[in-house]
Amino acid sequence: MRFSTKAIHMGEEPESMQHGDVVSPIHLSTTFAKRSIKEVEEGYVYSRSGNPTRDSLERKLAALENAKYGLAFSSGLAAESTILLALLRKGDHVVAFDDLYGGTKRLFNQVMERFGIEFTYVDAREPENVRGAIKENTRMVWLETPTNPLLKLADIKAIAEIAHERGLIVVVDNTFASPYFQNPLDLGADIVLHSVTKYLGGHSDVVGGAVMVNDDEIYEGLKFHQNAVGAILSPFDSWLVMRGIKTLAVRMERHEKNAMKIARYLEEHPLVERVYYPGLPSHPQHGLAKRQMCGFGGMLSFELKGGLEEAVRFVESLEIFALAESLGGVESLIELPAIMTHASVPKEERENVGIKDSLIRVSVGIEDAEDLIEDLERGFEAVRA
Ligand SMILES: *Cc1c(COP(=O)(O)O)cnc(C)c1O
Protein backbone atom coordinates (compact mmCIF):
# COMPACT_ATOMS: atom_id res chain seq x y z
CA MET A 1 0.00 0.00 0.00
CA ARG A 2 1.27 3.49 -0.81
CA PHE A 3 1.40 6.57 1.41
CA SER A 4 -1.96 8.29 0.69
CA THR A 5 -3.85 5.01 0.94
CA LYS A 6 -2.15 4.06 4.21
CA ALA A 7 -2.78 7.52 5.66
CA ILE A 8 -6.50 7.09 5.10
CA HIS A 9 -7.08 3.41 5.85
CA MET A 10 -4.44 2.07 8.25
CA GLY A 11 -5.52 1.78 11.86
CA GLU A 12 -9.18 2.27 10.93
CA GLU A 13 -10.00 -0.97 9.10
CA PRO A 14 -13.83 -1.41 9.26
CA GLU A 15 -13.36 -5.09 10.25
CA SER A 16 -11.51 -3.99 13.41
CA MET A 17 -14.48 -1.79 14.41
CA GLN A 18 -17.36 -3.18 16.44
CA HIS A 19 -20.10 -1.79 14.15
CA GLY A 20 -18.17 -1.54 10.91
CA ASP A 21 -17.50 2.18 11.45
CA VAL A 22 -15.38 3.66 8.64
CA VAL A 23 -14.01 6.22 11.10
CA SER A 24 -12.55 5.23 14.46
CA PRO A 25 -15.01 6.00 17.31
CA ILE A 26 -13.78 8.14 20.22
CA HIS A 27 -13.53 5.75 23.16
CA LEU A 28 -13.70 7.99 26.21
CA SER A 29 -13.99 5.21 28.81
CA THR A 30 -11.11 5.29 31.27
CA THR A 31 -11.64 1.68 32.38
CA PHE A 32 -12.89 -1.55 30.84
CA ALA A 33 -15.18 -4.09 32.51
CA LYS A 34 -14.28 -7.79 32.54
CA ARG A 35 -16.65 -10.74 32.54
CA SER A 36 -14.48 -12.84 34.81
CA ILE A 37 -11.37 -12.70 36.97
CA LYS A 38 -9.64 -14.84 34.36
CA GLU A 39 -9.95 -11.93 31.89
CA VAL A 40 -8.70 -9.10 34.12
CA GLU A 41 -5.32 -8.94 32.41
CA GLU A 42 -6.68 -9.36 28.87
CA GLY A 43 -7.46 -6.67 26.31
CA TYR A 44 -7.97 -3.09 27.44
CA VAL A 45 -7.68 -2.51 31.19
CA TYR A 46 -7.15 1.20 31.84
CA SER A 47 -6.86 4.02 29.27
CA ARG A 48 -3.39 5.22 30.26
CA SER A 49 -1.95 1.81 29.41
CA GLY A 50 -4.10 1.27 26.32
CA ASN A 51 -7.12 2.84 24.60
CA PRO A 52 -8.84 1.71 21.38
CA THR A 53 -8.84 5.19 19.79
CA ARG A 54 -5.18 5.81 20.64
CA ASP A 55 -4.40 2.31 19.33
CA SER A 56 -5.99 3.16 15.97
CA LEU A 57 -3.86 6.29 15.76
CA GLU A 58 -0.71 4.43 16.81
CA ARG A 59 -1.21 1.85 14.03
CA LYS A 60 -1.71 4.68 11.54
CA LEU A 61 1.41 6.50 12.80
CA ALA A 62 3.52 3.35 12.39
CA ALA A 63 2.29 2.91 8.82
CA LEU A 64 3.30 6.47 7.85
CA GLU A 65 6.97 5.87 8.74
CA ASN A 66 7.06 2.25 7.44
CA ALA A 67 7.56 1.28 11.08
CA LYS A 68 6.50 -1.76 13.09
CA TYR A 69 5.34 0.30 16.07
CA GLY A 70 3.88 3.75 16.78
CA LEU A 71 3.30 5.53 20.10
CA ALA A 72 1.27 8.69 20.72
CA PHE A 73 2.08 11.27 23.42
CA SER A 74 0.51 14.43 24.80
CA SER A 75 3.08 16.68 23.05
CA GLY A 76 6.26 16.48 21.01
CA LEU A 77 8.24 17.26 24.15
CA ALA A 78 6.41 14.54 26.10
CA ALA A 79 7.50 12.10 23.37
CA GLU A 80 11.09 13.37 23.65
CA SER A 81 11.10 13.12 27.46
CA THR A 82 9.84 9.55 27.28
CA ILE A 83 12.57 8.56 24.78
CA LEU A 84 15.27 9.98 27.07
CA LEU A 85 13.82 8.45 30.25
CA ALA A 86 13.35 5.05 28.63
CA LEU A 87 16.77 4.69 27.03
CA LEU A 88 19.29 6.66 29.11
CA ARG A 89 20.57 6.61 32.63
CA LYS A 90 22.79 8.77 34.84
CA GLY A 91 26.26 9.23 33.33
CA ASP A 92 25.18 8.70 29.71
CA HIS A 93 26.18 11.12 26.96
CA VAL A 94 24.27 12.31 23.87
CA VAL A 95 25.70 13.93 20.72
CA ALA A 96 23.15 16.37 19.29
CA PHE A 97 22.80 18.70 16.28
CA ASP A 98 23.56 22.26 17.44
CA ASP A 99 20.55 23.73 15.59
CA LEU A 100 17.69 22.00 17.47
CA TYR A 101 14.17 23.20 18.26
CA GLY A 102 14.49 25.56 21.25
CA GLY A 103 12.23 23.48 23.50
CA THR A 104 14.34 20.38 22.85
CA LYS A 105 17.49 22.24 23.94
CA ARG A 106 15.67 23.49 27.04
CA LEU A 107 14.62 19.92 27.91
CA PHE A 108 18.20 18.70 27.45
CA ASN A 109 20.00 21.53 29.26
CA GLN A 110 17.57 22.51 32.00
CA VAL A 111 15.90 19.19 32.83
CA MET A 112 17.89 16.15 31.71
CA GLU A 113 21.30 17.57 32.70
CA ARG A 114 20.01 17.66 36.32
CA PHE A 115 19.65 13.89 36.17
CA GLY A 116 23.26 13.44 35.13
CA ILE A 117 22.82 13.09 31.36
CA GLU A 118 25.43 14.97 29.31
CA PHE A 119 24.96 16.64 25.92
CA THR A 120 27.49 17.77 23.30
CA TYR A 121 26.28 19.92 20.40
CA VAL A 122 27.93 19.69 16.98
CA ASP A 123 27.34 21.05 13.50
CA ALA A 124 25.91 17.79 12.15
CA ARG A 125 25.89 19.06 8.55
CA GLU A 126 29.32 17.44 8.56
CA PRO A 127 28.90 13.75 9.67
CA GLU A 128 32.54 13.58 10.82
CA ASN A 129 31.73 16.18 13.50
CA VAL A 130 29.37 13.61 15.02
CA ARG A 131 32.10 10.96 15.00
CA GLY A 132 34.51 13.42 16.64
CA ALA A 133 32.16 14.06 19.57
CA ILE A 134 31.50 10.39 20.44
CA LYS A 135 32.92 9.44 23.85
CA GLU A 136 33.22 6.29 25.96
CA ASN A 137 29.83 7.00 27.60
CA THR A 138 27.94 8.13 24.47
CA ARG A 139 24.66 6.23 24.03
CA MET A 140 22.65 8.29 21.58
CA VAL A 141 22.83 10.65 18.59
CA TRP A 142 20.00 13.18 18.34
CA LEU A 143 19.26 14.82 14.98
CA GLU A 144 16.68 17.15 13.57
CA THR A 145 16.63 17.57 9.79
CA PRO A 146 15.78 20.01 8.27
CA THR A 147 16.45 22.25 11.27
CA ASN A 148 14.56 25.18 12.62
CA PRO A 149 14.82 28.01 11.54
CA LEU A 150 17.81 27.72 9.14
CA LEU A 151 16.78 24.57 7.28
CA LYS A 152 20.15 22.88 7.76
CA LEU A 153 20.29 19.18 6.86
CA ALA A 154 21.98 16.19 8.45
CA ASP A 155 22.86 13.15 6.32
CA ILE A 156 20.85 10.51 8.20
CA LYS A 157 22.35 7.50 6.39
CA ALA A 158 25.98 8.60 6.85
CA ILE A 159 25.47 9.50 10.52
CA ALA A 160 23.56 6.27 11.27
CA GLU A 161 26.49 4.28 9.87
CA ILE A 162 28.96 6.14 12.10
CA ALA A 163 26.70 5.75 15.16
CA HIS A 164 25.99 2.06 14.58
CA GLU A 165 29.72 1.22 14.42
CA ARG A 166 29.66 2.22 18.11
CA GLY A 167 26.28 0.69 18.94
CA LEU A 168 24.58 4.07 19.49
CA ILE A 169 20.86 4.77 19.11
CA VAL A 170 20.01 7.33 16.42
CA VAL A 171 16.96 9.54 17.02
CA VAL A 172 15.61 11.81 14.25
CA ASP A 173 13.07 14.57 14.83
CA ASN A 174 11.20 14.47 11.51
CA THR A 175 8.68 17.22 12.31
CA PHE A 176 9.73 19.67 9.56
CA ALA A 177 9.72 17.22 6.64
CA SER A 178 6.69 15.18 7.82
CA PRO A 179 6.58 11.46 6.97
CA TYR A 180 5.29 12.36 3.51
CA PHE A 181 8.65 13.81 2.45
CA GLN A 182 11.18 11.87 4.56
CA ASN A 183 11.33 8.48 6.30
CA PRO A 184 14.37 8.36 8.64
CA LEU A 185 13.89 4.70 9.67
CA ASP A 186 14.35 3.67 6.03
CA LEU A 187 17.64 5.63 6.04
CA GLY A 188 18.98 3.80 9.10
CA ALA A 189 17.65 5.78 12.09
CA ASP A 190 16.42 3.75 15.09
CA ILE A 191 13.75 6.15 16.38
CA VAL A 192 11.76 8.81 14.57
CA LEU A 193 9.73 11.41 16.41
CA HIS A 194 7.20 14.05 15.44
CA SER A 195 5.51 16.97 17.05
CA VAL A 196 2.08 16.00 15.68
CA THR A 197 1.04 19.53 16.66
CA LYS A 198 2.55 20.57 13.33
CA TYR A 199 1.94 18.84 9.93
CA LEU A 200 0.33 15.59 11.16
CA GLY A 201 -2.43 17.41 13.04
CA GLY A 202 -2.24 20.08 10.36
CA HIS A 203 -5.01 22.41 11.55
CA SER A 204 -3.44 24.17 14.55
CA ASP A 205 -6.01 22.65 16.89
CA VAL A 206 -4.22 19.81 18.72
CA VAL A 207 -0.95 19.46 20.65
CA GLY A 208 0.59 15.99 20.47
CA GLY A 209 3.68 13.90 19.84
CA ALA A 210 4.54 10.63 18.12
CA VAL A 211 7.36 8.08 18.14
CA MET A 212 7.84 5.33 15.55
CA VAL A 213 10.32 2.41 15.82
CA ASN A 214 11.08 -1.02 14.37
CA ASP A 215 13.21 -2.57 17.10
CA ASP A 216 11.22 -4.79 19.50
CA GLU A 217 13.41 -4.07 22.52
CA ILE A 218 13.38 -0.29 22.04
CA TYR A 219 9.62 -0.45 21.59
CA GLU A 220 9.09 -2.46 24.78
CA GLY A 221 11.12 0.14 26.72
CA LEU A 222 9.16 3.03 25.24
CA LYS A 223 5.80 1.33 25.74
CA PHE A 224 6.62 0.62 29.40
CA HIS A 225 7.63 4.25 29.97
CA GLN A 226 4.64 5.65 28.04
CA ASN A 227 2.48 3.99 30.70
CA ALA A 228 4.85 4.43 33.65
CA VAL A 229 5.48 8.15 33.02
CA GLY A 230 1.96 8.71 31.72
CA ALA A 231 2.24 11.48 29.09
CA ILE A 232 -0.32 9.87 26.75
CA LEU A 233 -2.47 11.49 24.05
CA SER A 234 -6.18 11.71 24.95
CA PRO A 235 -8.80 9.79 22.91
CA PHE A 236 -10.31 12.99 21.50
CA ASP A 237 -6.91 14.39 20.49
CA SER A 238 -6.00 11.00 18.99
CA TRP A 239 -9.13 11.21 16.84
CA LEU A 240 -8.30 14.78 15.74
CA VAL A 241 -4.80 13.70 14.70
CA MET A 242 -6.23 10.77 12.69
CA ARG A 243 -8.57 13.16 10.95
CA GLY A 244 -5.61 15.41 10.13
CA ILE A 245 -3.43 12.59 8.82
CA LYS A 246 -6.01 11.57 6.21
CA THR A 247 -5.29 14.75 4.22
CA LEU A 248 -1.54 14.87 4.96
CA ALA A 249 -0.51 13.88 1.42
CA VAL A 250 -2.65 16.49 -0.35
CA ARG A 251 -1.74 19.17 2.19
CA MET A 252 2.01 18.51 1.89
CA GLU A 253 1.81 18.70 -1.92
CA ARG A 254 0.23 22.14 -1.69
CA HIS A 255 2.49 23.32 1.16
CA GLU A 256 5.48 22.48 -1.01
CA LYS A 257 4.11 23.99 -4.22
CA ASN A 258 3.35 27.25 -2.42
CA ALA A 259 6.70 27.25 -0.58
CA MET A 260 8.61 26.76 -3.84
CA LYS A 261 6.76 29.67 -5.50
CA ILE A 262 7.39 31.92 -2.51
CA ALA A 263 11.06 30.90 -2.21
CA ARG A 264 11.63 31.76 -5.88
CA TYR A 265 9.78 35.07 -5.51
CA LEU A 266 11.83 36.01 -2.44
CA GLU A 267 15.12 34.98 -4.03
CA GLU A 268 14.51 37.47 -6.87
CA HIS A 269 13.49 40.29 -4.55
CA PRO A 270 15.93 43.23 -4.25
CA LEU A 271 15.13 43.72 -0.54
CA VAL A 272 16.03 40.13 0.34
CA GLU A 273 19.57 39.24 1.36
CA ARG A 274 19.22 35.46 1.40
CA VAL A 275 16.60 32.68 1.26
CA TYR A 276 16.87 29.37 3.14
CA TYR A 277 14.82 26.63 1.45
CA PRO A 278 16.18 23.14 0.68
CA GLY A 279 14.26 23.09 -2.62
CA LEU A 280 16.31 25.95 -4.08
CA PRO A 281 19.43 24.99 -6.04
CA SER A 282 21.17 27.80 -4.10
CA HIS A 283 20.71 25.88 -0.81
CA PRO A 284 24.18 24.54 0.09
CA GLN A 285 22.74 21.06 0.81
CA HIS A 286 20.25 20.91 -2.08
CA GLY A 287 21.92 17.70 -3.34
CA LEU A 288 21.48 15.95 0.01
CA ALA A 289 17.88 17.19 0.20
CA LYS A 290 17.15 15.57 -3.17
CA ARG A 291 18.78 12.31 -2.02
CA GLN A 292 17.18 11.80 1.35
CA MET A 293 13.86 13.62 0.98
CA CYS A 294 11.21 13.15 -1.72
CA GLY A 295 10.05 16.75 -1.37
CA PHE A 296 11.24 19.89 0.38
CA GLY A 297 8.33 20.81 2.64
CA GLY A 298 6.57 24.05 3.52
CA MET A 299 9.07 25.80 5.82
CA LEU A 300 11.44 28.53 4.71
CA SER A 301 13.36 31.46 6.15
CA PHE A 302 14.82 34.60 4.65
CA GLU A 303 17.02 37.50 5.65
CA LEU A 304 15.71 40.94 4.91
CA LYS A 305 18.16 43.69 3.97
CA GLY A 306 18.38 45.92 7.04
CA GLY A 307 17.91 44.93 10.67
CA LEU A 308 15.34 44.13 13.32
CA GLU A 309 13.41 47.37 12.76
CA GLU A 310 12.76 46.57 9.08
CA ALA A 311 11.86 42.97 9.93
CA VAL A 312 9.32 44.13 12.53
CA ARG A 313 7.76 46.56 10.04
CA PHE A 314 7.57 43.74 7.48
CA VAL A 315 5.78 41.17 9.64
CA GLU A 316 3.43 43.71 11.22
CA SER A 317 2.11 44.93 7.87
CA LEU A 318 0.92 41.54 6.58
CA GLU A 319 -2.78 40.73 6.45
CA ILE A 320 -2.95 37.03 5.54
CA PHE A 321 0.14 35.66 7.29
CA ALA A 322 -0.55 35.48 11.02
CA LEU A 323 2.25 36.73 13.26
CA ALA A 324 2.58 33.56 15.32
CA GLU A 325 4.85 30.79 16.53
CA SER A 326 4.30 27.11 15.62
CA LEU A 327 4.02 25.76 12.09
CA GLY A 328 2.56 23.11 9.83
CA GLY A 329 -1.09 24.22 9.83
CA VAL A 330 -3.21 25.03 6.78
CA GLU A 331 -2.86 28.76 7.50
CA SER A 332 0.35 30.68 6.74
CA LEU A 333 2.33 31.92 9.72
CA ILE A 334 5.26 34.29 9.96
CA GLU A 335 7.61 35.08 12.85
CA LEU A 336 10.94 36.59 13.86
CA PRO A 337 13.10 33.85 15.44
CA ALA A 338 15.43 36.38 17.15
CA ILE A 339 12.63 37.78 19.29
CA MET A 340 10.06 34.98 19.22
CA THR A 341 10.84 31.24 18.84
CA HIS A 342 14.56 31.59 19.57
CA ALA A 343 14.50 34.51 22.02
CA SER A 344 15.60 32.16 24.83
CA VAL A 345 18.82 31.37 22.95
CA PRO A 346 21.52 33.93 23.97
CA LYS A 347 22.33 36.43 21.18
CA GLU A 348 25.91 35.21 20.84
CA GLU A 349 24.81 31.59 20.42
CA ARG A 350 22.12 32.68 17.94
CA GLU A 351 24.73 34.43 15.85
CA ASN A 352 27.05 31.43 16.04
CA VAL A 353 24.43 29.19 14.43
CA GLY A 354 23.56 31.97 11.93
CA ILE A 355 20.26 33.41 13.22
CA LYS A 356 20.38 37.15 12.44
CA ASP A 357 17.96 39.75 13.81
CA SER A 358 16.59 40.31 10.30
CA LEU A 359 15.77 36.62 9.81
CA ILE A 360 12.10 35.92 9.09
CA ARG A 361 10.67 32.39 9.33
CA VAL A 362 7.64 31.40 7.30
CA SER A 363 5.33 28.41 7.64
CA VAL A 364 3.74 28.45 4.21
CA GLY A 365 0.08 27.42 4.37
CA ILE A 366 -2.18 25.99 1.69
CA GLU A 367 -3.95 29.22 0.71
CA ASP A 368 -3.70 30.53 -2.88
CA ALA A 369 -0.03 31.31 -3.54
CA GLU A 370 -0.88 34.50 -5.44
CA ASP A 371 -2.66 35.91 -2.39
CA LEU A 372 0.34 35.02 -0.24
CA ILE A 373 2.78 36.72 -2.60
CA GLU A 374 0.59 39.85 -2.74
CA ASP A 375 0.63 39.87 1.06
CA LEU A 376 4.44 39.65 1.14
CA GLU A 377 4.59 42.52 -1.36
CA ARG A 378 2.65 44.54 1.23
CA GLY A 379 5.47 43.79 3.69
CA PHE A 380 8.15 45.01 1.29
CA GLU A 381 6.18 48.20 0.64
CA ALA A 382 6.10 48.84 4.40
CA VAL A 383 9.88 48.37 4.55
CA ARG A 384 10.43 50.79 1.65
CA ALA A 385 8.12 53.45 3.14
C1 LIG B 1 7.18 22.03 17.94
C2 LIG B 1 8.36 21.15 17.83
C3 LIG B 1 8.72 20.27 18.87
C4 LIG B 1 7.95 20.21 20.18
O1 LIG B 1 6.67 19.72 20.02
P1 LIG B 1 5.43 20.16 20.96
O2 LIG B 1 4.30 19.41 20.36
O3 LIG B 1 5.30 21.64 20.88
O4 LIG B 1 5.78 19.71 22.34
C5 LIG B 1 9.81 19.46 18.68
N1 LIG B 1 10.54 19.50 17.55
C6 LIG B 1 10.24 20.34 16.55
C7 LIG B 1 11.08 20.36 15.33
C8 LIG B 1 9.14 21.19 16.65
O5 LIG B 1 8.86 22.05 15.66
TrEMBL record:
GO terms for biological process: cysteine biosynthetic process via cystathionine; transsulfuration. The keyword Signal does not apply. One of its GO terms (molecular function) is cystathionine gamma-synthase activity. Its cofactor is pyridoxal 5'-phosphate. Pfam families: Cys_Met_Meta_PP. Its EC number is 2.5.1.48. Keywords: Pyridoxal phosphate, Transferase. One of its GO terms (cellular component) is cytoplasm. Belongs to the trans-sulfuration enzymes family. PANTHER family: CYSTATHIONINE GAMMA-LYASE, TRANS-SULFURATION ENZYME FAMILY MEMBER. This is Cystathionine gamma-synthase. It comes from Thermococcus aciditolerans. The lineage of its organism: Archaea, Methanobacteriati, Methanobacteriota, Thermococci, Thermococcales.
